[in-house]
Write a structure and sequence with these properties.
There is one protein chain. This protein is an alpha+beta fold. It has helices at 3-17, 24-33, 78-93, 120-124, 142-146, 163-177, 181-190, 226-230, 244-255, 268-275, 334-352; strands at residues 37-46, 50-57, 73-74, 199-200, 240-242, 259-260, 263-264, 303-308, 312-317, 322-330. The strands form three sheets. The chain has a five-stranded antiparallel β-sheet with strand order 2-1-10-9-8, with helices on both faces. Strands 3-5-4 form a three-stranded antiparallel β-sheet. A two-stranded antiparallel sheet has the order 6-7. The radius of gyration is 19 Å and the shape is globular.
Length: 356
């Protein structure tokens, strides 16, 4: 099936499996009973207020540890939006990166075979011509091999989601800033926002009382994504760990024009880069998906979103000034769980509608 047909079929299957008018708690219980995830933490609110905060279920597949509101989750590909895209936006702010320049301007060590120019924006929108094969995934050699990895088609021909795009973007941000991704984002974004628990894996001495053991991969305190786990170095495609509260702070910053507590974290130019979809060739703006097909019905077409393989979803509605963070410990089918997270977010939004 094509992507949109598969998405529609999956949505119907999820609605059939969880039919009923129950609220968010009941729906989450059904998802746990049906094996989609072991537990969840959800937060939702506006640019200045948290309207919904709840933890359900268990942190581990064995159901030995109850889920906590401050649980630390492997964000998987949410790293692309919160981590790498933000890092590049910071570098654009500093005048060190032109998003419409060839990415090789900033990575002169790249030695792959290109089929024409590939811009930084092409990488960020998954229009680069790279596919999602991962021959670079070899322990201790990920970075060296990604610099020899080649696209399969010229840039701009079609959208294809590929993790290598964000590995390259992360390397660009590191080279032009002179800092690791962890240090760059930590010093310039996460620290000022009070996101004290947000950092790249591996986590030092992970606390089993707080760190979620990923149910499918079985990983604990390290990235579930193989390249991110094998690189021995922070990557832009995956590897961030965070909490619902930290991610809520990040969402509120974007809703508040890039500011937090009177401090400007991202400029207006950087916000436009991250949030505006320049054309219809890709469903991605710059790191963030801008596609209503993946958005809860109560949110507007101005919503940004991203998902993570481990079981995570974020939505930020720039028009209605709402956000939803859904972090789950996914144990079931990836596509069904992603659609179920959309439905869970929708039920949370309905429950908090009267609070606005």
């Amino acid at each position: 099936m094509t992507g949109r047909i598969a998405l529609f079929a999956c949505a119907l299957a999820v609605r059939a499996a969880f039919a009923g008018d129950g609220g968010a708690a009941a729906f989450n219980g059904a998802c746990m009973s049906n094996g989609l995830w072991t537990g969840a933490v959800v937060m939702s609110g506006t640019d200045d207020e948290v309207l919904f905060r709840q933890a359900w279920g268990w942190m581990d597949k064995a159901r030995t540890r109850p889920m906590r509101e401050d649980a630390l989750f492997d964000l998987a590909s949410v790293t692309k939006a919160v981590g790498a895209a933000t890092a590049v936006a910071l570098c654009v702010d500093l005048g060190r990166v032109d998003p419409d320049a060839a990415f090789t301007n900033y990575l002169p060590a790249y030695a792959g075979s290109l089929k024409g120019s590939v811009t930084v924006r092409d990488l960020a929108r998954h229009l680069s011509g790279f596919d999602n094969s991962k021959p670079y995934d070899q322990s201790g050699q990920v970075v060296a091999r990604i610099l020899r990895h080649s696209p399969v088609r010229p840039a701009g021909m079609r959208y294809e989601y590929a993790c290598c795009n964000y590995i390259l973007l992360g390397l660009i941000a590191e080279r032009v800033s002179g800092k690791s991704l962890d240090a760059l984002c930590g010093n310039e974004v996460f620290g000022p926002l009070g996101m004290r628990d947000t950092r790249w894996a591996p986590l030092p001495d992970p606390d089993p009382a707080r760190v979620v053991r990923q149910a499918v991969a079985g990983t604990f305190g390290v990235a579930s994504d193989p390249p991110a786990q094998h690189a021995g170095h922070p990557l832009g495609n995956a590897g961030l760990f965070s909490t619902a509260a930290d991610l809520s702070a990040f969402c509120r910053m974007l809703l508040d024009g890039g500011a937090c507590g009177g401090k400007q974290i991202l400029s207006e130019r950087a916000l436009r880069l991250l949030t505006e979809r320049p054309d219809g060739r890709s469903p991605v703006a710059f790191g963030w998906r801008a596609d209503p097909a993946f958005t809860p019905p109560s949110l507007s077409a101005a919503t940004l979103s991203h998902t993570g393989w481990a079981g995570n979803s974020l939505w930020i509605d720039l028009a209605k000034r709402r956000y939803v963070v859904v972090l789950t410990n996914r144990s079931g089918d990836h596509e069904k769980a992603a659609k179920a997270r959309v439905e869970l977010a929708e039920r949370v939004l309905r429950e908090t509608k009267g609070a606005l």
